[in-house]
Amino acid sequence: MPENASSVLAQLRRLVQSGAVTEDGQLPTERVLCDRLGVGRRALRAALEVLEEEGLIWRRQGKGTFIGQPPDPTGLLAADIVEATDAASIMEARLCIEPALAALCAERASADDIERMRRLIEHIGLTPESDTAELWDGALHRLIARAAGNQVLLTAFQLLDEVRIRDDWQAMRARVRSPESMAASDREHRAIVDAIAVRDANGARAAMTGHLNRLAENLARPLSKAAE
To answer: Phi and psi of 146, rounded to 5°?
Structure first.
């Protein structure tokens, strides 16, 4: 089965989590990573670019790529839990957790965090292909969750975020994605980050809730058809 960009990103996270790197945190070369993970260089570079934008890795000219912060130990647990649930349940849980994270993010995000968020939004708009757009969209939501500064809520978010790498989720998102839905997401993402930038916790919470409600409604259509 061909790898999608999100699953390549997940493999890289698990590689880091396994500790299979040098003592100084240096990642293997791209050629070695492609061979080890069994993926193409284009997908690998896209995943590395996302990790760099998230601030999880950094590059030293002429030296290589290094881990920017330790991995969260909940990744493997998240993968196990997500396998036993469904997209509708994931969206219900996201609506409980992500608006709260957005509100906390408005209170705690640094100027650098906010600048990264704006760059991620631009990346989504510049990469309309389903797989790559989903990759950058996930990066934005993960950055908001991390910048909220609450490890318990972040862990809960990461349990939900694992659903993005599943092939059924990717296929479902691709079916409901359209130029109109992409434009709506762009407006909603900008509204969320604008509220965060002006420290409007209630506004960030409301904007995230509206964004996720629209997404849930869009996803409900293929889910209801599949149940018929």
So the answer is: -70, -40
pLDDT above 60: residue 227: no
Domain residue limits at 39: 5-67
pLDDT at 178 over 60: yes
Within this chain, do residues 13 and 84 fall inside the same structural domain, yes or no? no
Other C-beta atoms lying within 10 Å of the C-beta of residue 175: 14
pTM for the complete prediction?
Answer: 0.69
User: Chain-centre distance of CA 127, in angstroms?
Assistant: 15
Residue 102 has pLDDT above 70, yes or no: yes
Q: Are residues 96 and 179 in the same domain?
A: yes
Separation between Cα atoms, residue 176 and residue 109, nearest integer Å: 31
**Which has the closest alpha carbon to 103: 149, 72, 140?**
149
* Domain total of the chain: 2
- Eight-class DSSP state of 199: T
